[in-house]
Amino acid sequence: MRCPFCSHLDTQVVDTRSNPEANVIRRRRRCPKCDKRFTTYERVELRMPRLVKKDGSRTDFDRDKLLGSMMVALRKRPVATEAIDAAVDRIEEKLRSLGDREVPTSRIGDLVMRELAKLDKIAYIRFASVYRSFETPDDFREAVQEIRRPRRRK
């Protein structure tokens, strides 16, 4: 590790601490040349799959865009920010665990629907109305029936 102060190529690790919850290792380092100390962090970098849109175009996964679309559905609903962040984390983890290099956006929509159903029924209906392009009152009625039915575990 190069020293950020004097650019010396070799530094010594003085202290190492890991945070398993955040998948981070914190290292305190000392430069033997200038004797200054600094901290580095190591994180596991897992790539998110690329998204394949309905028109066939591809784009990078964007956590902020996912969070924003969920926030629109959850606007003025009594859901804690921590619960929303945890739902987005679960969606990201599911995408990573798939191991696919590309995922259709419809798959993400389904994952969002599943998480919103757990968080708030009204937000689920709001999101479903846009995601599934509802056009008639019957479309809403079907979505309400879905949310009322007990869900089977897959």
- Secondary structure tally, helices: 5
β content, as a range? 15-25%
Distance between the termini: 46 Å
Rg is 22 Å
What topology, given as strand order, has the largest sheet? 1-2-3
Q: Provide the structure class.
A: alpha+beta
Query: Helix fraction?
Result: 40-55%
**Average pLDDT taken over every residue:** 88
- Unreliable stretches covering 5 or more consecutive residues: none
Shape: elongated
Main sheet summary: 3 strands, antiparallel
Number of strands: 6
Task: Kindly give the count of domains.
Answer: 2
Oligomer: single chain
> What is the N-to-C order of secondary-structure elements (H for helix, E for strand)?
EEEEEHHEHHH
Description:
By secondary structure, this protein is of the alpha+beta class. It has 2 domains: 12-43; 50-148. The protein has 5 helices and 6 strands; from the N terminus they run βββββααβααα. The chain has helices at residues 63-74, 81-98, 105-119, 121-131, 137-148; strands at residues 12-19, 24-30, 37-43, 50-52, 58-59, 102-104. The strands form 2 sheets. Strands 1-2-3 form a 3-stranded antiparallel β-sheet, with no helix packed on it. A 3-stranded mixed β-sheet has the order 5-4-6. Helix 2 packs antiparallel against helix 3 (105-119), helix 3 runs antiparallel to helix 4 (121-131) and helix 4 (121-131) packs across helix 5 (137-148). The longest helix is centred in the middle third of the chain and has 18 residues, at 81-98. The termini are far apart. The model has no long low-confidence stretch (mean pLDDT 88).
